[in-house]
């Protein structure tokens, strides 16, 4: 299994023959086989030379850049290796056809909403009283089928998240001042965690899309735009409740992440390197966590669940099998 490599402010990465040489902050060097790496994350103001970038691109390694505040900046995607003109035409067709587009968009919203509901149900069963929110979300999920355009659908999705986030202070054991989702910029440590870990999910989804013939710029719930991989946003909505939100709850309720891991003077915008390393280690564990797949009859990782979602979409686009978006069954 290939792994992600994380490079922090004081770390350096260079090419050594057909391997990657990682120099840690204390000067220790480690040579890493290039075929063991799937993607690289750079955090901070790193200098990356074109020789290294060319080498990574030749080996189909995706590179993600985060700034000083650990905000996602951009991704460097190698030249597409798996391309299909036929599939591209099908993707565009399902975007331009209003009925086909909204059919897919509804699947994303229903899947995300049902996974959110299952998170609430999980904690409700462990003594956190979120039953009223569960009932409200059930009502909103029933409203999804009534939507006949993307704007209405996005409105329902927004209301589901608003209700969901209103329960986080019940779920989280630490004292926080989190009351509502604020993105640009985040205004407290919970919002910073959401932004940071959601961006990790986004880049992971992008990496899995890249391993298929799907074009990541053509999406259905989120509007395709310039310089963004909007299909990653669509599919990430499905997996954020399972991967991002459950990770945040676990990190905070186990006191692995506390206020001390943030810069209070910067309104909690900046995670310490220690805090970031804790999160990334736990994020990697979560991606490698496995579940018995009810249809495949074998253990699959959370990361591979994302790839399977891409394959399901491809079958739908080719009209081989109707797309039924992922919903947690456990």
From TrEMBL:
Protein name: CRISPR-associated endonuclease Cas1
Xref: HAMAP family: Cas1
Record bears the keyword Manganese: yes
EC class: hydrolase
Cofactors required: Mg(2+); Mn(2+)
Similarity comment text for this entry: Belongs to the CRISPR-associated endonuclease Cas1 family.
Function recorded in the entry: CRISPR (clustered regularly interspaced short palindromic repeat), is an adaptive immune system that provides protection against mobile genetic elements (viruses, transposable elements and conjugative plasmids). CRISPR clusters contain spacers, sequences complementary to antecedent mobile elements, and target invading nucleic acids. CRISPR clusters are transcribed and processed into CRISPR RNA (crRNA). Acts as a dsDNA endonuclease. Involved in the integration of spacer DNA into the CRISPR cassette.
BP-aspect Gene Ontology terms: defense response to virus; maintenance of CRISPR repeat elements
Organism: Lachnoanaerobaculum gingivalis
Assembly information from the UniProt record: Homodimer, forms a heterotetramer with a Cas2 homodimer.
InterPro entries per UniProt: CRISPR-assoc_Cas1, CRISPR-assoc_Cas1_C, CRISPR-assoc_Cas1_HMARI/TNEAP, CRISPR-assoc_Cas1_N
Binding site for Mn(2+): 157, 222, 237
Domain of life: Bacteria
One protein family per Pfam: Cas_Cas1
Keywords, ordered alphabetically: Antiviral defense, DNA-binding, Endonuclease, Hydrolase, Magnesium, Manganese, Metal-binding, Nuclease
GO molecular function: DNA binding; DNA endonuclease activity; hydrolase activity; metal ion binding
PANTHER family for this protein: CRISPR-ASSOCIATED ENDONUCLEASE CAS1
EC assignment: 3.1.-.-
